[in-house]
Amino acid sequence: MEPRRRGILIILSSPSGAGKSTLARRLMEWDPEIRFSVSATTRAPRPGEREGREYFFRSRAEFAEMVERGEMLEHAEVFGHLYGSPRAPVEQAIAAGHDVLFDIDWQGGQQIRNSALAEDVVSIFVLPPSIRELERRLSTRGQDTPEVIAVRMQKSYDEISHWAEYDYVLINDDIDRATEETRAIVTAERLKRSRQVGLVDLVRRLSAEFKEMKDDLGT
Ligand code: ADP
Ligand code: 5GP
C-alpha cells in the first residue's frame, strides 16, 4: 500500500499578467487530483469565465456577508475589487488528502501563511522577465480594457515587491520551462518526510520483514 501523505496548499502569486493562471491550468492538467481553490470576487466576469469555475461572482453585500459569517480563509481588496478564498472547500479537500492550488495575491498569501494551515503551505512567486513583457502579455491576453490594464501595470511593482516572502521564485520567460519547474517544486514538496505520514508504518513493516529474513540475507 502507498504511504498516505498530508496535502499541500500551493500558493501562486505574481503581478497580473505574469502567467499564474496559465501555470495553474498546466499544473492541474499534469495532476487532475489537485483541487483549484475557486475564489469569490466582486469583479465582473471576463468573456468566457464561468460562475463556479474561475470565480464565484458576488455583489459587495454578498461578499461582506461571507466574510462576516467567517466563511473566508483569507480575503483582500485587489485593483479596487474584493477577492477571497472560501474556507469550506479547502478544508474538505485537505481532509480528503488532496492538494489545493490558490491563485491569489500577496495579501492572501500572507494571511494563509499566518493561519493554522501554515505548515501545509508551499508558496511560489512568478516573476515576468521584464515589465515591458508583462505589459505585452496583459495587452495580448485581450480580456481587459486599456484602463484596467493601466491600473494593473501601475500596481505591478507593489506585488513584485513581496517576492522575498515566498518559498520559491520562478521567472516565467519560457512557459514550458516554468511549468516544468512548478511540477518539480510540487513533486519535491510532496516527498518531504514530514508530509509522508504513512512512512512510520511502512518502515515498521520493513523492520519486521528484515528481522524475519535476517539470517538468510547476504549468504
Ligand atoms: P496571470 O494569471 O498571472 O494574470 P495569465 O496566465 O493570464 O497571467 O497570462 C497572461 C498572458 O500571458 C496570457 O495571454 C498567457 O497566455 C500569456 N503567457 C503566459 N506565460 C507566457 C510566457 N512564458 N510567454 C509568453 N506568453 C505567456
Ligand atoms: P484577476 O482579476 O486577474 O482574476 O485577479 C486579480 C488578482 O487577484 C490576481 O493577483 C489574483 O491572484 C488575485 N486573487 C484572485 N483571487 C483571490 C483571492 O481569493 N484572494 C486574494 N487575496 N487574491 C486573489
Secondary-structure-based class equals: alpha/beta
Named once each, the bound ligands are: adenosine-5'-diphosphate, guanosine-5'-monophosphate
Counting H and I runs of at least 4 residues, what is the number of helices?
Answer: 8
Write down the Rg.
21 Å
Major beta-sheet overview? 5 strands, parallel
Tell me, rounded to a whole number, the average pLDDT.
95
Q: What would CATH call the homologous superfamily of the domain at 9-37 and 97-217? A: P-loop containing nucleotide triphosphate hydrolases
SSE string, helices as H and strands as E? EHEEEHEEHEHEHHEHH
**Broad shape:** globular
- CATH fold group of the domain at 9-37 and 97-217: Rossmann fold
